Amino acid sequence: MDQLLLVGRKRSVQDVLVSLQSLGVVQVDRLDPGDEGLRRFQPSEVDLERKANWDRAVGRSTFLLEALGVGDEVPVSGKGDLPVDAASVAERIDAVGDQVDALLAERAAVADELAVIEAHLPVFRDLAPTLAQLESSRYLYGAATLVGSEAVEAVSADLRASLDGHVAFETRPRGKQTLLVVAVPRAEATALRAALAKHGLAEIQLPERYRALGTAKAVHTMEERYQALPKRRAAIAEELDKLALQHGPRLKALRLTARNHQARLERMLDLVEGSYAFALKGWVPSADRPRVVEALRKQFGDDVQVRHRPADEHHDHDAPVQLQNAPWVRPFQGLLSLFAPPAYGSFDPTWTLAVFFPLFFGIVVGDIGFGLMFAGIAWFMRRRGQAGRSLSLGPLGIVIKPQALKPISTVIFWAAGWSIVWGYVYGEFFGNFLEYWPKGRPIFYTTLHHDPGYGLIEILLFRVEVFTPLLLLSIGFGVLQVLGGWVIRAVYGFRHNDMKHVYEGVGMFAGIAAIVIFAAAFLTDGLNPVVNGVVAIGFVVFLICAVLAKMPLMLVELISNSGNILSYLRLFAVGLSAALVAALATNLGFAVSGTLPIIGPILGIAVALLVHLVALALTMIGHTLQPLRLQYVEFFTKFGFYEASGRPFEPFKLLGGKS
Questions:
Q1: What is the DSSP letter of 463?
Q2: What digits encode the pLDDT tens for the residues 515-544?
Q3: What is the model's pLDDT at position 78?
Q4: What is the model's pLDDT at position 514?
Q5: What are phi and psi of 342, to 5 degrees?
Q6: Extended beta strands in 485-552, E state
Q7: What pLDDT sits at residue 603?
């Protein structure tokens, strides 16, 4: 990464930003004015007004795209001429926005009216026969209220006493309450309301929009509207879908155009200025720097001066990080993107994720059938991404964008491949299915249970009974990664002239290596003076480095790091449990298949597949997280990945549309 410092005439600032945005490889950083008479760049009133207009255009287009449900899979329209000034862009957006606003307002009104009808219509269906007659009477007034069923008699008696007996009642049960209709002379209407209020009861009234119609006609109108409104709501949805199909791609292009202009005006605020010139600081990948410098020289000549220097990985801690990995490693950068990128000039562990995560996943799953299933899922995801369609994970509420599906599918392909490889080693295909099929001469067999030649392929490692090889392999990976992490710590400490990290890395490596050597020799009865001497040298080096690093807690770390190595045994333990569950599912299927002569085999296959899928769904998160945890916790912590993080390289570039 190279740092750029541009100085130019103030009248050229817009053109310089347009040029940098078109080049698309320079990250513009905020420049400190310092104490040299410079000040933060002050956009003109015209520029501020333009920015406000572009901000409105971005906000308005974003709202419309969300309202229309235009997703990432919808392509940006490249047909026709797009306007480049804010007024014309706003005019195009508003032409669609006015139609969308009207439909959204109507949809909201329809929803409100439906909610009102659903709340009132059931009640007034019951009340209509009685209230309609009372409303048509010249002498009587009727009111309805909801009363708790246990309080109907008390309320009725009190109303009769309050109104001197000039009252009649009708009741209708409604759930745990009772509809109480009260009829009184019209002259007593006010007294009736007061009596109801005394009991904390309110008169049930028609919604305001229907009140003038009267109960009978209001109920009839609500019935008609209740039938018509859902149809209108569906019609509104169809009209919105048509607008999305017709205008969605163009709206996306207009939003990108607005965001391009908005970004240029925002970048102005990162510059500094003097009386006649401006200054800009940025970062550019070293490989792209000559092209950027030459392009600026050709366009602006002496009006813009460019100074550049390579980033100093020892001191430029704010230099942005652009991960540069081999093509086969890049898909795994997504697993690293869960965290901030490594600090500039520090170790990039992406390749270790690419090597060890799918390998560990395969060791755990170790099943040819499941591996083929994962490969099928990866193939489906890749085809969907190539078609430009996103993938929704349903109840999880996660939507994977099309551009992310290809790298994710690549990671799954690698994991599936290693699952198939280790499935062959373990002799597992949906558990132990191929140990039974074909009957009489199965595909896989083990000499632990059968004579040589019983099946076609002898199982290389029968992990459900032979534990030692996988135990040693798991511990071996732990030793490799834990010791390797401390080697990386020491190497990068030396590169950055950080002797504390050098001493820490060397000391921890020596101490852990001494423990591993001693443990291996002790367990194999191999202790001898040579081994004891090597172990002693390791501990002496550890103690010297702990003193030089001034880190007494390294003694505690030495113990915890030994536990980190043992933590890799989870590869064996989780894998063994997965194999046992898969074998149980297959055995259950074979047991069911023998119960009936014809339908039994079909039922057995169905039961086995169902149990396999349920078990896989319940354990898949663990199968994925355990290998990742070994990387993120046991390995990354050794070389200080989380101690110093960087910031991602985010170049100032065109997003599409017009500039």
A1: T
A2: 999 999 998 888 899 989 999 999 999 999
A3: 59
A4: 93
A5: -60, 150
A6: none
A7: 79
The pLDDT value recorded for residue 86 is: 87
Residue 60 is predicted with a pLDDT of 93
The residue behind tokens 């119609």 is 213
Check residue 147 and give its pLDDT: 87
- In this predicted structure, what is the pLDDT of residue 80? 58
Distance CA 443, CA 430 (A): 13
How many whole angstroms separate alpha carbon 367 and alpha carbon 433?
A: 11
Under 8 Å between Cβ of 345 and 494: no
Residue 146's CB: how many other CB atoms inside 10 A? 14
For 38, phi and psi rounded to 5 degrees?
Answer: -90, 165
* C-alpha of 48 from chain center: 35
Integer-rounded Cα radius of gyration of the chain? 38
Count of other CB atoms within 10 angstroms of residue 379: 14
| Amino acid at the residue 234 | A
Instruction: Read off the tokens for 302.
Output: 């002496």
Is-contact 642 339, C-beta < 8 A? yes
Whether this model's pTM surpasses 0.70:
yes
* φ/ψ of residue 140, rounded to 5: -115, 150
* Contact criterion met (CB below 8 Å) for 604 and 593: yes
Local structure of 120: helix, strand or coil: helix
In the 8-state DSSP scheme, what is residue 17?
A: H
CB of 302 closer than 8 Å to CB of 630: no
Six-digit token string for 605: 């296959």
- Give which of 252, 266, 248 is closest to 55, Cα–Cα: 266
| Pair type for strands 444-445 and 457-458 | parallel
Residues of the chain whose pLDDT is less than 50?
none
Q: What is the distance in angstroms between the CA of the first residue and the CA of the last residue of the chain?
A: 26
Distances from the Cα of 113 to the Cαs of 207, 213, 259, 446, in angstroms?
10, 16, 39, 72
Tell me if residue 278 falls in helix, strand or coil: strand
User: Amino acid identity, residue 600?
Assistant: G
Helices and strands (H and E) in the chain: how many: 17, 13
Give the C-alpha separation, 64 to 500, whole Å: 56
d(CA 609, CA 463): 22
Identify the bridge partners of residue 532 per DSSP, sorted by sequence position.
none
SS3 310: strand
Per DSSP, the three-state class of 392 is strand
Instruction: Provide the pLDDT for residue 35.
Output: 59
